DNA sequence: CGGTTTTCCGTACAGTGCACGGAAAGGAAG
DNA sequence: CTTCCTTTCCGTGCACTGTACGGAAAACCG
């Protein structure tokens, strides 16, 4: 019985050391560790203990890897179940923010490339159907969805650059003070108040989100 | 009369061939022409007919140049005069969008760096004082301003990547079709409708903006 | 003139993405 | 087993990047 499973090591046609999946996982890890600036094909290959050019069997370019890594982490957002549209959207967007905080390189990438990966589209679909069920359609529906994703992207982008410039909450009080004074001089203490002193981004995020959702609510058909 | 103006070439202490201003203007032109990816210190120097390293007399790094270029084009937004808060904000944000369309590299940069330049702060101040005059304060004020600037950034970012992927309205009907089908398959025709067929970004922009402004309006004190 | 400071920039170095072409490994066929 | 083909791996090389360093040249002051 030479074709018995026990006499063959494995069924699958080939067992390459590298796979697209392994590459993408390593890319996400590398981006998390070094950021977009520290991400290079050589460093990625090193992480996989492979030669640099081996990557190009599975991927056409560095851009490809970034696209794949981006869609990969978008997949970490679990698509919300059914429920009232507002709670559903709040849950979904809160998760989006958390993913972008875990992977601070995301907002920079979403700003430059179209989100056409399967995970991105699946998440986008959740937004469309939630708001369509709530009664929106046509250009208003598109505007609402666009506004929501712009909001979360923009919020986390500025949250991230803020953490980047002060590094840690307690340390670097000097930089903190310099920026504070700078903002005070040029914008006034109104701005300084919450932008600098207040580290509670979570609350601030929900506050702005409520604003947008209230705006959307005014477009809903009565009932 | 040896000190007569006619016997001296010029009064000013030094007349270097390069100045920070000339560098920044050239940087903006180069970014407009080649985008962020095509922007290099060597290309910038060539445009100024100078050696590459000469730039470093006026600027510490490439990052510096990008910061300066960014604040420069933000300066193209003319700070609105007085007026009812809503019209004022619409005017201001419409202009922001136009500037970002003229300089499509802007959203990519704002996503990664803090906007601390004088022009950026002056524009930010317009937002704060308009909404403060309208009656907002504290965290709500900050949320409103943040939401508005997130919105315009996010909107134009996705508008730009859209133009990038289809290049011109009429040409490249093939790519257009491919993306259309892709979105159709994964998100449904609801999304496809305006995202692909509809090229009227201006109207779409104002629609989403109205949504946000309505949300802000609900936070205003009565009267 | 001499001395100092400012401006200019050539060279060099360590890094990048990736084209090319060859080596090696595995499977199929004779 | 041998031969051949396909897939996987990757070393080398090229054109290009940001910028450190140090020297030349020019412009000012005395």
Tell me what you see in this structure.
Two copies of one chain form a homodimer. Chain A is mainly alpha-helical and 223 residues long. Helix content of chain A is 65%, strand content 0%. Chain A is built from ten helices and no strands. Chain A has helices at residues 20-34, 41-47, 62-74, 85-102, 106-110, 118-134, 138-166, 173-186, 189-197, 201-217. The relative contact order of chain A is 0.09. Residues 1-13 of chain A have low confidence and may be disordered. The interface between A and B is large, with 64 and 64 residues. Chain B binds a DNA duplex (30 and 30 nucleotides) through α2.
Distance between termini of chain A?
A: 71 Å
The biggest sheet of chain A amounts to:
none
Question: How much strand content do the residues of chain A show?
Answer: under 5%
Helix-strand topology string of chain A: HHHHHHHHHH
Please, what is the average pLDDT of chain A? 87
Count the E strands of chain A: 0
Low-pLDDT segments, ≥5 res of chain A: 1-13
Oligomer: homodimer
Tell me which protein chains meet in the greatest interface and how many residues each side has. Answer: A-B, 64 and 64 residues
Tell me, briefly, the overall form of chain A: flat
Integer-rounded radius of gyration of chain A? 22 Å
Helix-residue proportion of chain A: 55-70%
Number of helices of chain A: 10
Q: Name the structural class of chain A.
A: mainly alpha
